[in-house]
Amino acid sequence: MIQDASRSPSFGRGRAHGRVRARGPQPRCPGHDGGPGQLGCLVPALPVQPRGGWRDVDHRFRLVFCDPARSRAHPRTKGSMMRWTVRLLLCLGALGGCDTLGLSPEEIAARDREAARVAQLRVQYPDDPAFFRANVGDTVHFASDSSALSPEARARLRRQAQWLGVNLGYDAVIEGYADDRGPRGYNMPLAARRSQAIASYLVSLGLPRERLRGVTFGEGNPARTCEAPDCLAANRRGVTILVAGDLL
């Protein structure tokens, strides 16, 4: 039985101190008569015994107040908790300002605008390869005997760069193709130039070159098998294939 724990210099330091919620029937101190001067007692939460005095009370014991009117945190305990709360908030505030240390207001505003832009792009370009193929577009086409990018091809590649810029878990393999009207010795270098033109434009838009790899198929793997000039145009193409970042 604790006769007057409030006089103990270690009151409020043990693991068992704090607010006790009086919900439902509460354990009673053995032999307690409710008289003055008896603050409470320790009731084991598990069938074990305390190892020592108040300073060594195990956390498996909790304090039961004999007087319900005193069943609240000690004033010194409340003040200590408040001081620690204030200190914690100050520390968190200091940590939150570390990323802006040394930046001018203009630099902070520019950084915030960039963060907002990236957040909007993440909504516009979800992390889904099927979305990339269907909505961004993975294929651009070229004129006959040319590796120059058309305005339509550049617009599609800008969308590809934006998608890759916010979905960093993917890299890209750029496949270059040609139609079959020329000899293989001509078609392979032409397809390689087309793949290189796509990769160079994506790099100019801000993508790191190490995230891109070019491969050349020449007239192989045709998109369409035909002889008409309009049909052959589908084979003069470059295709952006998404791969997991650690597989490139």
Task: Give descriptors for this structure.
15% strand, 248 residues, disordered N terminus, 60s Ribosomal Protein L30, Chain: A, 2 domains, alpha+beta
Short description:
This protein has helices at 75-96, 105-124, 129-136, 151-166, 184-204, 229-232; strands at 40-44, 61-65, 139-141, 170-177, 212-218, 237-244.
Show the helix and strand layout.
Layout: E1 40-44, E2 61-65, H1 75-96, H2 105-124, H3 129-136, E3 139-141, H4 151-166, E4 170-177, H5 184-204, E5 212-218, H6 229-232, E6 237-244
Parallel strand pairs: 4-5
Antiparallel strand pairs: 1-2, 3-6, 4-6
Can you give a write-up of this model?
Residues 129-246 form the OmpA-like domain. Residues 1-36 are annotated as: Disordered. Keywords: Cell outer membrane, Membrane. This is OmpA-like domain-containing protein. Its main location: membrane. Helices cover 37% and strands 15% of the residues. The protein has helices spanning 75-96, 105-124, 129-136, 151-166, 184-204, 229-232, and strands spanning 40-44, 61-65, 139-141, 170-177, 212-218, 237-244. The longest helix has 22 residues, at 75-96. It starts with 39 loop residues before the first strand and ends with a strand. It has 2 domains: 1-87, no CATH class; 118-244, 60s Ribosomal Protein L30, Chain: A. It is of the alpha+beta class and 248 residues long. It has 6 helices and 6 strands; from the N terminus they run E-E-H-H-H-E-H-E-H-E-H-E.
Number of strands: 6
**What integer is the average pLDDT?**
75
- Going by CATH, the homologous superfamily of the largest domain would be OmpA-like domain
Helix-strand sequence: EEHHHEHEHEHE
Number of helices: 6
Total tally of structural domains: 2
